[in-house]
Amino acid sequence: MIMKIRNIIYGTTVSFALVSSTNAYSQTGEPYIHDPSTIMECDGKYYTFGTGGGGLISEDGWSWQPGAVRPGGGAAPDAIKIGDRYLIAYSATGGGLGGGHAGKVLTMWNKTLDPSSPDFKFTEPIEVAHSLDDEDCDAIDAGLLLDPTTGRLWLSYGTYFGFIRLVELDPATGARVEGNEPIDIAIDCEATDLMYRDGWYYLLGTHGTCCDGPNSTYNIVVGRSRNVTGPYIDNIGRDMLQGGGKMLLSAGNRKTGPGHFGRYIEDDGVEKMSFHYEADFDRGGRSVLAVLPLLWENGWPVAGEPVKEGVYEIESQRHGYALELAVDFVRMPHKMFRFWEKAEAPVEPLKSQTLEDVIDTWPEGEINVRLGDYMFRPHQRWSVQPAPEYGGYLDAPYYKILIEGTNRALTATAEAEVTAAPEFTGAPEQLWRIEQLTDGTYRIMPKSVPGHESEQLVLVSVADSTPSLGRFDMNSDNSKWRFRDR
Amino acid sequence: MRYSFLKRQSLLLLILLTVVSVNVRAEADAAGEDDFPPPRQTDYKIQTPTYLSDYFTKSEKGCIATESDGFIRRWMLLEPISKPNRSNTVFTDSYINSVLDSVYFKGQFTDIPQNGSKVKAGSARLTWHALDSRLFNVKLYRFAAALKKPVYGVIFMAVTVIDCPDEIKNVRMSVGSNSASKWWLNGEETVILSGDRRMVADDCVSKRITLRKGRNIIWGAVINGPGMSDFCVRFLDENGNPVTNFTTCFE
């Protein structure tokens, strides 16, 4: 009993301490960058490049450090992997809002992004697009798309000063396709990028004020087209050539000015969007790299959110049952009413069942878990807590999943099953990677499963009432979960 | 409407008393912005000079019909009034109301200008130009650049007259502008677009208003610090569809 009380107190204390952490959802390390390129994975590490040269490297996608190398300086690069090489596009510009608007977009290749690799060597940059002084275009802010349906390579570029333009590059050389002429595809946005999904081409752009720290109103918008050359139309039918664009992301969570979208596909149904915030209030207003889940709703991209710290029902998408400890259901005493008789007595609210009401009925050791009808009882209420001290992945730190008010932790076992261990130890099998899927549900994956380190196993429903670990299948509700606060 | 017009007349008396000080203030602003970048297109060589004919045609006599998208393309544009601002982020509501309600020249908000007529704003003599935009939007930056006038740190004034064969009730004036702007219909303020704006079609609309049978006068003032500058204006009906049954002319 003493141990149980200690567990209750410990769990409560940890929960309170983490609530006070306001920046648990920001990339750690030194994620300072402006105009980040689309995140690239190379030999197990992640890379992004920014304005002014250089960039960031991460071992796990969560903790970022300076060290990426991009020669040429200039502004706002983008990156794409084509075959076994990486193509980097960046712009050398002499302008600014009130300055000249002559600019060049250049491309260069590298076999690797790892500057310590003997293969690390950029090719000579070649010009693929330019703008002349005071032309209706600023040739900066490159965005690359390799069309998965045709294999053709496209580059968008431009700023608020005139048109966003599209040109075609040769995916073998990175050079401009001979005779290709720029096509105007949008106005009044910048930091564009392109993506393709299910027969639609999407043009991402940024509206609002750049480069004004906490006052930057930068926000990411999107339009879509059946053709890569446009017209790109927003959700109300407005052409991006008339300034249209559906909002994808604006300020929030003490960060302003999201801009420079990049799409990263991690797995079938697991997509991320990388971008920068102009100002992270918890980092003194500096510009930082950020990554969020990328969702799709009715054919439009939507910015998702990592699971916020809280107490949740963890609901299986398979049948709707809730993850729970396999313990005795403790009935609540209540007064019986005759449904057909008018109630004369005053209404008195029922108290919810508390942990103290039931914990003495629970075993002290390991407890099996199962799925059952959600009744908001203590054995069904999971405290989901970020655990950034154990690292993370692209869009969130690892989480620990504890029964509310205790230190009892959801744990993966060597038999590829799940259980609830009496104590959270920080072991990899107790750290959970919770990723929002493109349909808004979540996949829940242990950091590591003893004896199954080479496999990527996730929490699955193998029956309506039985959870286990198995392979992720985006096409099966067995692999999907919801975190419900109710 | 009438009340508003009377109010405008009364206001003008007050404004006329202060117009000298306003002009002095404008000059002082200019004098106090020594470090403001020099105007573009005036004193250094441009690789791609702007030609007015790329963006506008000169307005011919008579009226033009409204195209199916409803955007008003015929405007009388005044050469830019100097109003230096290093950034567009200063365009708060109170700033816009103060600066764009100010009277910079005689006849502002009251007289329909003629093509080629001149006004004196501070020490500058500025000319009105009757132009038809080739585009749905009116490219103010290009207008100024083509005339080798300052393109940054300026206020653009625009006037047009639309002629409705019948009264049209419950329409909304729809405006997009880069950067901030303010608009009036028949002397009544209709739309204000504050902040660091990019031009987006149907960005802001007025409350429901009535277009009179016959002439309706539209005034607009667009302010720009650095960067591109343009606007687009049309009227939308109750269903959000463009209103097209009117003509535009200065007569």
From TrEMBL, chain A:
Return the protein name: Family 43 glycosylhydrolase
The species this protein belongs to is Heminiphilus faecis
Question: Family per UniProt?
Answer: Belongs to the glycosyl hydrolase 43 family.
Q: List each copy of the Ricin B lectin domain by range.
A: 379-447
Claim: Kinase is one of the keywords in the record: no
Q: Which Pfam families match?
A: Glyco_hydro_43, RicinB_lectin_2
Q: Which CDD domains match?
A: beta-trefoil_Ricin-like, GH43_Arb43a-like
Keywords of the record? Glycosidase, Hydrolase, Signal
What pathway, per the record? Glycan metabolism; L-arabinan degradation
Residues annotated as signal peptide = 1-26
Could you tell me which InterPro entries the record lists for this protein? GH43_arabinanases, Glyco_hydro_43, Glyco_hydro_beta-prop_sf, Ricin_B-like_lectins, Ricin_B_lectin
UniProtKB/TrEMBL annotation, chain B:
Source organism phylogeny: Bacteria, Pseudomonadati, Bacteroidota, Bacteroidia, Bacteroidales
Spell out the protein name for this chain: Acetylxylan esterase
Is Signal found in the keyword set?
Answer: yes
**What organism, scientifically named, is this protein from?**
Heminiphilus faecis
UniProt keyword terms in alphabetical order: Signal
Signal peptide range: 1-26
